[in-house]
Amino acid sequence: MTFSYLPKIIHMGFGFAVFLLWLFSAKAAFALFLIYTLTVFVFRKRRISFRDDQLTTDGLIYSPISGKVESIREADGALEIKLHARPWQEMGIHMPLTGEVREVQREKNIVDKASNLPGRVSQLQFEGKAHTLIKIVFDNSVIGSRPQVMIAPGDRARRQVNIGYMPFGGKLSMILPKESELMIKIGDDVSAAETVLASLNKD
Q: Which CATH number is correct for 60-199, 3.40.50.2300, 2.70.70.10, 2.60.40.10, 3.40.50.11090?
């Protein structure tokens, strides 16, 4: 549904269960309704405004998740920014830039529930308009789950677009070109599709 990552069957199931319980116990029905409300809050989907100027935002890399900047370092000739999303934060994953999905790496022997494809997603690679490549590398969440994504190689999308979610939060690393100009520092809070992480230097 548009306001939640939960499938419609979950909402319908909760509604039917609350109705049945109400016939026997109003208190039990109210308790179940509170559980449903909490579940919807945890799996809430953030509303993003798409009213921005693509010319002025060209070359900017936005945070794909809401969370905190945990570390920043140079590694293997690239810039690595590690972000940490807490379980209570909105769990959506958004396009960090306008461009094309070049690669989707998956773990073996595990089926991704979101796409029903073999292998849960462990890494994404995107190519921007200037043919710049950036990566998102996912860590396991607190409960050991991987992100659920709804994209495939060759897909094109603009920044801010929702491409999946991280159940109960987790960590990911943004791998950017070494020459990128940082716009954040360690300890900063970031908002998905709003906070600028870095600017890609143009020749």
A: 2.70.70.10
